[in-house]
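new request in #modeling-help
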Amino acid sequence: MVHEQINTIVQQSEAGYQYLQQLSLAERAALMHAIADAVEALDETLIQTAHEESALPLARLQGEKGRTVGQWRSYANAIRTGIYAEARIDKAGEGKADIRKYNKGIGPVAVFGASNFPFAFSTAGGDTASAIGAGCSVVFKEHPAHPRTSQLMAQAIAKGLASYGAPESVFTYVQGSSHAIGEALVLHPAIKAVAFTGSFQGGKALFDLGAKRAEPIPVFSEMGSVNPVFAFPEYLAANPQTLAAQYIGSLTLGVGQFCTNPGVFLAVSGEAFQAFKLAVSAEINNISEAKMLHEGIQKAYDHGKHKLTGQPEVSLLATGQVGTATLAQAAVFVTTGKAFLTNEHLSEEVFGPTGLLVECADAAEMYHILDRLSGQLTITFAATDTDVAEHKNFFMRAQEKCGRLLFNGMPTGVEVVYGMHHGGPFPATTDARFTSVGPDAVKRFLRPVSFQNWPNTFLPAELQEENPLQIARIVDGQYRID
Amino acid sequence: MVHEQINTIVQQSEAGYQYLQQLSLAERAALMHAIADAVEALDETLIQTAHEESALPLARLQGEKGRTVGQWRSYANAIRTGIYAEARIDKAGEGKADIRKYNKGIGPVAVFGASNFPFAFSTAGGDTASAIGAGCSVVFKEHPAHPRTSQLMAQAIAKGLASYGAPESVFTYVQGSSHAIGEALVLHPAIKAVAFTGSFQGGKALFDLGAKRAEPIPVFSEMGSVNPVFAFPEYLAANPQTLAAQYIGSLTLGVGQFCTNPGVFLAVSGEAFQAFKLAVSAEINNISEAKMLHEGIQKAYDHGKHKLTGQPEVSLLATGQVGTATLAQAAVFVTTGKAFLTNEHLSEEVFGPTGLLVECADAAEMYHILDRLSGQLTITFAATDTDVAEHKNFFMRAQEKCGRLLFNGMPTGVEVVYGMHHGGPFPATTDARFTSVGPDAVKRFLRPVSFQNWPNTFLPAELQEENPLQIARIVDGQYRID
């Protein structure tokens, strides 16, 4: 029954894909703006519903709604520039054919909603926007933690499609919480790519399904990480208080429910680290207990905290205000560099407001930890220019381990700009080469096609001789903006 | 023992990767030009050796050598432009961080040599050149069909590296023909991507290995296809002779040992098709028996031909001059559209100079065949403008099935230009999103890294404020070539 249902939906989605394939870049952008308008027009019912389903504060949800609308608009504008067409033209010459290449949509895409951003990484979130931006229809699988929010968003998308005059099949919706549904969707032969944000377990399972299909497909799973913060001597000595306030602020923001939550803090042991620990204790004591996204998440959080508590050479430094079975309590633990190197449980993500401070014996141990680190979304440095100059090799090697390097800031807060890379080496994601935030997220759903000696009038507009779309192209090896 | 050997080699390659990471774009380009010079300087011994090992004609090998040198140079020049850095800069603003992104090398790459292009798709071929262009060291696994050729090429690469002053570890070499060696290489945790050109069986096995690793890695296998040629009524009626000559020329070029060999020819049954068949028979009768790359390939070819002969509704139309156990005989078979649709063996690639003509009952059947087609490197149209106008939907849908669409030409001949896409949907390759020919081949081995609020002096040159490399960048959402 699941298969029949999925089959019907994916067939609709194929029709939606065919429709999108016939739109010009400007038309696709206009369609996306129509969806943005419809999402923007949703009233307080959306915010209230999401608040009830996710326990996220109203102000945060209001902000996330704005971000979601902004994503549609910024991706639409990026699409209209033609940058993602990556048009390349090599004109015919002596013994040479005329060869022209552009990027087109890869086919219908399955998108799985995340629970921690019920707007921006769910139904009308960045994955849906970037897939449609690429000219791909979307089959969306709702997240069971916020079905009502999801349906309101799906209605807005349908409204946007209708107001533009596009068929509903551009965006189809799958309800239900069973794994069988998601599995059938990923395995359907007409689905050509998958986007997911969530747990390692879930993301890796989808990746494995995608790879084992008769026709393997790309599965973009963003699975989070511990986002280490490395503090260097000069900086730490000068700013223990400020750094502690920043760290605890970032660690507990949104009840610690960000993929980029800085779960691990590392520095060389010593006086400065002692001062930092004192400041961290003071800061965390003020953090109120808070409701997490759903029961399952709090259970996993309490389990993760409990597991940390039981590890040798790990001690509890301080906690936030007292928690309950339904309200999460923040906590910070301390361990040694040696223990962190030998006990792999210590580098597992605890999704929620819990941090682990790692006291390294010396700089060499910190280098060693960096080299042993698995892939991360972000790595943050608390450092002065002198620190950087003294540890240049450390900074260089850190690039191998993450998607984004931050200097004296905190990793929560992922701006929706061209320069953003929200991704990173496995196990942070299943494909280090693509971002899920920023207009470049569109690239995940494109593939190139070349045309050889093709009649000009039948070429896609992106490749026609007269450059009717006025887009940047590489013509005979030279960048040209006509 | 295999594992120890591979481990030592991959550790060397890691050092080579670290070295490359420290080179500027211009330095990397200069290193590639040094390798190009060293390959170019190889004397007739190379051509003679390759001729002995591959049976390919001397003139063809001379041409392939030039192509190989040209690849290094064109990729080097592309690298120097900074196009593959894809630099994006979003400057700090009110409440906004400074975020800058560029592409860097993914890590050490394993490259497997192909037998059918002992220069251009082997040791110093496009995969090696594009990986080094991306800043990735290469561990090269020789193809057992041309070990002496391969070693001469490896020596040239070593010479090029030495003349530039780069360490040998940038390119390391693995001998031997056992599958265990290749397997150990792909499974080594320090290897971050794999490139392969060859059979479906081999390419898919490597892909599966890459996906099942603890850390999955991208495996780019180019596995060939039947490269269908669709002939349309007006064109076929007007040009049966010319088309037959072109088709047989392309089918038998280089003893049919090209990935883009047009194995299947389709048109609607009728008078024009009859005239075409007569012309094909006359053409193929003139084709001499010829030596294939190695014994294994001829065996597989004879087996494939034999298998076709035994299929119901398939008949032999004509053959080339008589073959032997060591010389391949060209052949053309005929079948119906109906048989082609129902018997999957008929769309299997026969690597060598054998073609299958498919007589479709009507245009609808040809459409149906297109929709059922698996992924191809190329699809070719023999058509007039009127034909295209009448079958617009056919041409549009053909994009879903291949990487390159040709109009009134033949697919053999893959030019090394920006506009080339040598790739295509599975099973033509394991990743439709990347090409293995043309400067864009470099993209396979890159991944992005973002820098947030980073001190200008410590940024990679690609991202520094003053744009010291003078490369095109997207700054605050606008394309800029400073």
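bot summary: Chain B touches chain A through 73 residues (CB under 8 Å).
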